[in-house]
Design brief:
The chain is an alpha+beta fold. The chain is built from 16 helices and 17 strands.
Length: 474
C-alpha cells in the first residue's frame, strides 16, 4: 500500500529533565532535601522531593514557613508551603480562629509533632516560562504578629525541557476497494474412482463444514460482499495421469455443485481450477521426512520425466519407500484448496471505526486506523493502541510499522520502536524516525547521521530537527 504525500507532524514535549540533586543536602538551616524531580506530562508539571526536618528547631513563639518556588527572570510561582509552628504560636492561631500563615493548601505541623521527613508532591499547570526555571526552597521565620524575622533561599535545581524531536506520522493512501480473502484446504473423501460427494462419508461432514464455516463467517456480515468462491481440486499420483485429470475435474465440479446447492450465489461467483497430481505437495512431505533414499526420490520428483513415468520409476526403484508414501503421504495429496474473496465497505465515522476496531479490526484499512488515531491525544494508551492494532492487521506494511514505531518513540518504548523500524523500509520518513529514536536514546552521532540522510532525501522536518539539535548541544 502506497503512502500519500500528506504528513502529520506532532510536536512532542513531554520528556523532561531536572538539574537537581539526588543526594541529601542541607539547603536552608535545619532542612535537608533529596530526590528532587521535576517532570512534565503535557499541560502539567509535577514537583517531587524528600524534605528532612529532623534538625529543624522552632521556638515556642516562632513559626517557620518552607516554600518551594519556581523562578525564571520576572516570572515566579510559589508552590504550597509547609508551616512548622512553635507551641505558643500554634495555639495563638487556634484560640483566635485565625488562618495560618498561608492558605488552606499549606501543610501545617506543631513543632513538637512534626515528622522527621516529608515526601513533598505537587502538580501545577505548565507555562512556557517554566522551561529553564530554577526551583528553590525559601525559608521564612516569623515572630509575634506575623513579623518576618529572617529569610533564606536554597537552590534545588533547574527545570530544562528534554529535546523531543517532532515525529512524522504518515497517512496511508485510502483503499478504493477493500478486497480481502480467506483460504484453506479441505480433504474430502470419495469412494474409489468416483466423483460423487457423500456428505456423511468418512470425515466429509467435518471437511465440508470447514468450507461452509469460512463462507458463513463473511456471508453473514452486513459490511461484506462476497465476490468469488474459488476451488482447486488435486489428486494423488498413483493412477494414470489421464485418469487423475478426470478425477480432479469431476470432483471439483461435484464440490462446486454441492456449494451451489447450499447458497444462492450468482452463476459466476464460484470459480474452479484443478491439478491432476499434486507433485509439489508430495515433494514437501518427502523433504520433511527421514525416509531412506530421500535425496534420490526428491531428484526423481524434480526431474523432467512425464508424470506416469516418474511415478512408475519411484515405485519400481524404491518399493518400500513407495509403500510408505502411498500409505502416509498420498491421502493428504487428495485435497481441495479454497479461497473466499470479498469486499468490505468503507467506514468514515470515527465512532463506528472505534467500534469496528474493538470487534473486528481486520475489517479496517490502514487509512481508517489512521483517521481514528486522530481522535486521541498523542501518547495516550488509546492513541498507541490504534497504531499497534493496525500493525497487527498489516504486519508487513512499511507505513503501518513506521507509524507504530513513532507511537512507541512517543512513549519512550525504545525496544518496541526498534522492532517496528526494522520493517519500516527506507523512506525519508523511516530514516528520520531512526534519527528521532537515536535522539531520545542520547546517541547524537547516530541521530545526526540519520537526520542528515533524511534531509538529503528531501524531508524538510529533518533539517529543522538538526538545527534545533545543534542549538541545544551548544
Amino acid at each position: 500500500m502506497k503512502k500519500t504525500s500528506y504528513i502529520l507532524i506532532l510536536l512532542l514535549g513531554v520528556g523532561l529533565t531536572a538539574e537537581a540533586q539526588n543526594s541529601k543536602q542541607t539547603v536552608v538551616d535545619g532542612v535537608s532535601v533529596s530526590d528532587v524531580k521535576m517532570e512534565r506530562n503535557g499541560a502539567y508539571i509535577a514537583v517531587d522531593m524528600n524534605l528532612g526536618l529532623k534538625d529543624l528547631a522552632v521556638e515556642g513563639n516562632r513559626a517557620v514557613l518552607l516554600t518551594p518556588r519556581l523562578v525564571n527572570g520576572s516570572d515566579s510561582l510559589d508552590l504550597p508551603s509547609i508551616g512548622i509552628y512553635g507551641r505558643r504560636r500554634y495555639y495563638f492561631y487556634v484560640r483566635n480562629g485565625e488562618s495560618l500563615l498561608t492558605d488552606k493548601d499549606e501543610m501545617s505541623y506543631k513543632a513538637s509533632e512534626k515528622p522527621d521527613g516529608i515526601a513533598y508532591h505537587n502538580i501545577v499547570s505548565y507555562a512556557d516560562w517554566m522551561n529553564g526555571a530554577v526551583l528553590s526552597l525559601h525559608r521564612s521565620d516569623y515572630g509575634c504578629c506575623n513579623t518576618l524575622l529572617a529569610r533564606q533561599d536554597g537552590t534545588l535545581g533547574r527545570h530544562t525541557e528534554a529535546f523531543f524531536p517532532e515525529l512524522v506520522f504518515v497517512q496511508p493512501e485510502a483503499e478504493i476497494m477493500k478486497s480481502r480473502s480467506l483460504s484453506g484446504s479441505a480433504y474430502i473423501d470419495f469412494p474409489v474412482d468416483q466423483t460423487v460427494i457423500y456428505p456423511d462419508y468418512r470425515r466429509n461432514t467435518v471437511e465440508l463444514g470447514k468450507i461452509q464455516a469460512t463462507i458463513d463467517s463473511v456471508r453473514n456480515d452486513k459490511d461484506v460482499t462476497i465476490t468469488s468462491v474459488w476451488l482447486k481440486g488435486y489428486a494423488s499420483p498413483e493412477s494414470p495421469y489421464k485418469h487423475n485429470t478426470e478425477l480432479a475435474i469431476g470432483r471439483t465440479a461435484a464440490l462446486k455443485k454441492h456449494i451451489g446447492q447450499l447458497y444462492s450465489f450468482a452463476d459466476n461467483v464460484i470459480q474452479t481450477d484443478y491439478e491432476p497430481e499434486d507433485w509439489a505437495g508430495l515433494r514437501r512431505y518427502v523433504e520433511q521426512s527421514n525416509i531412506d533414499h530421500r535425496a534420490e526420490i526428491l531428484a526423481l520428483i524434480d526431474s523432467d520425466m512425464e508424470p506416469d513415468a516418474k511415478e512408475w520409476k519411484i515405485k519400481r526403484t524404491y518399493p518400500e519407500e513407495y509403500r510408505f508414501m502411498l500409505q502416509n503421504f498420498y491421502p493428504a495429496l487428495r485435497h481441495t484448496d479454497y479461497r473466499i474473496d470479498y469486499n468490505i465497505r468503507t467506514f468514515s465515522d470515527a465512532d463506528e471505526i472505534k467500534r469496528i476496531m474493538a470487534e473486528r479490526p481486520q475489517k479496517l484499512s490502514l487509512n481508517e486506523f489512521y483517521l481514528v488515531a486522530g481522535q486521541y491525544e498523542p501518547g495516550t494508551d488509546e492513541f498507541t493502541d490504534v497504531f499497534q492494532t493496525a500493525v497487527r492487521m498489516f504486519p508487513n506494511d512499511e507505513t503501518a510499522n513506521l507509524n507504530a514505531a513513532n507511537a512507541a518513540i512517543r512513549r519512550d518504548d525504545f525496544g518496541t520502536a526498534r522492532r517496528y523500524l526494522d520493517k519500516a523500509g527506507d523512506s525519508a520518513e523511516a530514516v528520520y524516525a531512526r534519527g528521532a529514536l537515536a535522539v531520545r536514546e542520547g546517541d547524537y552521532d547516530t541521530a545526526c547521521r540519520y537526520l542528515n540522510k533524511a534531509k538529503e532525501m528531501g524531508l524538510e522536518q529533518a533539517g529543522r530537527t538538526l538545527d534545533e539539535l545543534d542549538k541545544r548541544r551548544k
